[in-house]
């Protein structure tokens, strides 16, 4: 959950998740649709699918979470950082979990690039606490733009601070944001307002796979707009999506699933779609 997501955002999802799936064996029995629904709003849904696949593989191999690097990185979605975090924090083995915060702290300490092997930094005992301490230091004190050097417990060891380059290290990369603009069609069968149904479809492709959504304008020929709802602008890590929801009264047969608007809460949608659904409900009740 903490891959590319802050601790603050993760905490409520983790509490809900661990209450529903308190063991690997229970998680392994869940369906993909269910776990994606539980993950809704956290983003990067491939992580949820990878957790499920990993749980099933672990159960197939005896039910014990691996305590060695090779077995961990062989599981779906687990790379060097996640494997190192599990080994150091859960199993107290000598691995340094290098996330963005840790990389920033150590880059400043060393005044630039990191050594390839960081294990010599680890204390003989409690390597997990050491990894977590570095993460916390980066998250609360060694900040990207305004590092709080006066509060830093290792300021005497920081080469970047000694050279007055703490705000220059690590070098910031310009991130290119791709803007996507999509007209979404809310195809409503509205003969009876109290039973209004809308057409939904499973999303394909890697991004948001397994989630539900609405067809885009280029997927449905010959439509007439009944209403245009408030646009929704949502930012992801590398792109920004501008969604323009268009209500269309449509009754003929179209590929997808017709679902009562009041029942959409049971389906997993990306968070910006929830805003659209809320506005659709308002339009139906007021029309």
The count of helical stretches stands at 10
Number of strands: 7
**Structural class of the secondary structure composition?**
alpha+beta
Q: What are the segments in which pLDDT stays under 50 over at least 5 consecutive residues?
A: none
- Please give the largest β-sheet: 7 strands, mixed
What's the CATH architecture name of the largest domain? Orthogonal Bundle
Overall mean pLDDT stands at 89
Q: What fold name goes in the CATH topology slot of the largest domain? A: Endonuclease III, domain 1
Name the CATH class of the largest domain: Mainly Alpha
Distance between the termini: 41 Å
Strand content: 5-15%
User: Using only CA atoms, what is the Rg?
Assistant: 24 Å
CATH superfamily label of the largest domain: Hypothetical protein, domain 2
Notes on the structure:
- Strands 1, 2, 3, 4, 5, 6 and 7 form a seven-stranded mixed beta sheet that branches.
- Helix 7 crosses helix 8.
- This protein folds into two domains: 7-162, Orthogonal Bundle (Endonuclease III, domain 1), CATH 1.10.340.30; 178-286, Nucleoside Triphosphate Pyrophosphohydrolase (Alpha-Beta Complex).
- The chain has 287 residues and is α+β, with helices and mostly antiparallel strands.
- It is globular, with a radius of gyration of 24 Å.
- The protein has ten helices and seven strands.
């Amino acid at each position: 959950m903490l891959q590319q997501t802050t601790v603050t955002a993760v905490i409520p999802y983790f509490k809900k998740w661990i209450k529903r799936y308190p063991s690997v064996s229970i998680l392994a029995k869940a369906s993909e649709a269910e776990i994606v629904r539980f993950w809704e709003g956290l983003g990067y849904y491939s992580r949820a699918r990878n957790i499920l696949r990993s749980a099933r593989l672990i159960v197939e191999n005896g039910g014990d979470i691996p305590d060695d690097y090779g077995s961990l990185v062989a599981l779906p979605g687990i790379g060097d950082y996640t494997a190192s975090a599990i080994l150091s924090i859960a199993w107290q083995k000598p691995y340094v979990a290098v996330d963005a915060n840790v990389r920033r702290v150590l880059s400043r300490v060393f005044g630039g690039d990191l050594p390839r092997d960081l294990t010599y930094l680890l204390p003989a005992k409690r390597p997990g606490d050491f990894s977590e301490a570095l993460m916390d230091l980066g998250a609360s004190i060694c900040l990207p733009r305004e590092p709080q050097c006066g509060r830093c417990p290792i300021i005497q060891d920081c080469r970047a601070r000694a050279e007055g380059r703490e705000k220059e290290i690590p070098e910031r990369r310009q991130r290119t944001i791709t803007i996507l603009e999509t007209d979404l069609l809310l195809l409503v069968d509205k003969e009876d307002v109290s039973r209004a149904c809308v057409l939904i479809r499973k999303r394909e492709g890697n991004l948001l796979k397994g989630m539900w959504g609405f067809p885009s304008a280029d997927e449905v020929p010959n439509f007439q707009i009944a209403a245009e709802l408030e646009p929704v602008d949502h930012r992801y890590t590398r792109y920004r999506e501008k969604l323009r929801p268009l209500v269309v009264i449509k009754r003929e047969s179209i590929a997808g699933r017709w679902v009562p608007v009041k029942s959409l809460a049971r389906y997993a949608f990306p968070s910006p779609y929830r805003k659209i659904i809320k506005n659709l409900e308002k339009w139906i009740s007021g029309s």
